[in-house]
Amino acid sequence: MRSLPHKPDSLKLDKILILSGQKIVIKKSRFTESQIVKILKENESGIDAQSLCREYGISRATFYNWRKKYSGMEVSQLKR
């Protein structure tokens, strides 16, 4: 069995902050804020959270964290 070439972790990262000599890595989100709002709007229109999580490949905890943070927002409000 052939192994795939190893990709350095730095390709997966969005930002690296250096505070007081320590590197803090911030991971890039797979979804933009406007995509998150779209997913939450689908839930508000009647699609249950479990099927949305399965469709988009996210955990229920992630979905409910998004709902807590972005509920009631429109895409135009995100730009502010």
Structural account:
This protein is α+β, with helices and mostly antiparallel strands. The protein has helices at residues 33-44, 49-56, 60-70, 75-78; strands at residues 13-19, 22-27. The protein has a two-stranded antiparallel sheet with strand order 1-2. Helix 1 (33-44) crosses helix 3. It is elongated.
Write the topology of this structure:
Blueprint (H helix, E strand, L loop, with lengths): L12 E7 L2 E6 L5 H12 L4 H8 L3 H11 L4 H4 L2
Antiparallel strand pairs: 1-2
Helix pairs in contact: 1-3
What is the CA-CA span between the terminal residues? 51 Å
Shape, principal axes of CA atoms: elongated
Count up the helices: 4
**Helix-strand category:** alpha+beta
What are the secondary-structure elements, in order, as H or E? EEHHHH
Secondary structure: number of strands: 2
Rg, Å, rounded: 17 Å
Which tags fit this structure?
80 residues; alpha+beta; two-stranded antiparallel sheet; 4 helices; 44% helix; elongated; disordered N terminus
Summarize the structure.
The chain has helices at residues 33-44, 49-56, 60-70, 75-78, and strands spanning 13-19, 22-27.
